[in-house]
UniProtKB/TrEMBL annotation:
Membrane topology: Multi-pass membrane protein
UniProt organism field: Enterovirga aerilata
Pfam families given in the database record: Multi_Drug_Res (PF00893)
Gene Ontology molecular function terms on file: transmembrane transporter activity
Cell membrane found in the keyword field: yes
Location of the protein in the cell: Cell membrane
A biological process term (GO) from this entry: xenobiotic detoxification by transmembrane export across the plasma membrane
Keywords: Cell membrane, Membrane, Transmembrane, Transmembrane helix, Transport
The name this protein goes by in its record: Guanidinium exporter
Amino acid sequence: MAWTMLIIAGLLEVVWAFTMKQSEGFTKLWPGLITVGAMIASFALLALAMRSLPLGTAYTIWTGIGAVGAFLVGIAVLGESAGTLRILAALLIVSGLVLMKLSSDA
């Protein structure tokens, strides 16, 4: 269950990163409210997952999902660059996440 909460927390990190961009510096009400709500939910789920997962593992997976997810949303939704080096960087993050999961005792 901890891993499920952690993955959802990471996906909510992508949501709040995207809606923060859409809020244009919190000048738009609804994207700003969604950002704050997703942040609170993401942090809460991360905290719950950390009850049974090691700090280093949980935090690394959470930030990695957020980073790679925001990268993919940026490309797919916002038309950001999908250059070779950017894709390689994202693949290195994903490989680190896989190694972190494989090395976890939980």
